[in-house]
Amino acid sequence: MSTPTFSILLGGNITVTDRLRAVTKGSRVIAADSGIRHASALGLTPEIWVGDFDSSDDALKAAYPKIERRAYPASKAATDGEIAIAEAISRGAERLILVGALGGERSDHVLQHYLSALSLAEDNFEVMLTSGEEEAFPLCNDAGMELDLPKGSLFSVLGFTVLEGLTIRNARYPLKNFKLTFGSSRTISNIAEGMISVTLSKGRAMLLARPYDMTGA
């Protein structure tokens, strides 16, 4: 990977897929608390394991005795995931893959991962959130991206603000220079025709894709 890339292993659930294996291959890895349980399934070795370890039982801790561990108090002012991201940035990360950011028991953590990703994107970091089955990418002011999706798979654009100049290409429901009102469901459950292109003039949004979901085809 030419861009310094770190995979951050978070506590949410994942499904090991070919896309997830491919996107994390060759990246440097930091585990946040119980997120280290994903390391073996993905064939990854974290270079450091951070957190308060309140969600890592003794068996999990014993499974990784050689990984550098940095403990924080439970009363800290940041989540384990935020600490792991900050550690990656301090080590030179320019691209972040947040593995396990989209699933699990804590919807507050999932929402915080969305907000963190948008903030990081505004600071010019490349960010991807993934559970294996779902992938999400932040889009901010004057932003655009292309994403290679299987023909017939589902994707949505979620507006966190009013969106202006929204253009979606190579989809069943294309848009051109569209203004999406805040809270509108207009851009939910679109269908990819292959490589999609999404551009945005103003606003904050997340592109959420389901590459293995063909229910809309």
Secondary structure elements and pairings:
Layout: E1 5-9, H1 18-24, E2 28-32, H2 38-42, E3 48-51, H3 58-63, E4 69-71, H4 80-90, E5 95-99, H5 107-122, E6 126-130, E7 135-139, E8 143-148, E9 154-159, E10 163-171, E11 175-180, E12 190-200, E13 205-210
Parallel strand pairs: 1-2, 1-5, 2-3, 3-4, 5-6
Antiparallel strand pairs: 6-7, 7-13, 8-12, 9-12, 9-13, 10-11, 10-12
- CATH topology name of the largest domain: Rossmann fold
Rg, please? 18 Å
What does the oligomeric state look like here?
single chain
CATH class call of the largest domain: Alpha Beta
CATH superfamily of the largest domain: Thiamin pyrophosphokinase, catalytic domain
Strand content: 35-45%
Distance between the termini: 33 Å
Strands, count: 13
What is the H-and-E element order? EHEHEHEHEHEEEEEEEE
Mind explaining what this structure looks like?
The protein is α/β, with parallel strands linked by helices and 217 residues long. The protein has two domains: 5-133, Thiamin pyrophosphokinase, catalytic domain (Rossmann fold, 3-Layer(aba) Sandwich), CATH 3.40.50.10240; 139-210, Jelly Rolls. 21% of the residues lie in helices and 35% in strands. The protein contains five helices and 13 strands. Strands 1, 2, 3, 4, 5, 6, 7, 8, 9, 10, 11, 12 and 13 form a 13-stranded mixed β-sheet that branches. Strand 1 (5-9), helix 1 (18-24) and strand 2 form a beta-alpha-beta unit. The longest helix is centred in the middle third of the chain and has 16 residues, at 107-122. The protein is globular. 39% of the residues are buried. The model has no long low-confidence stretch (mean pLDDT 92).
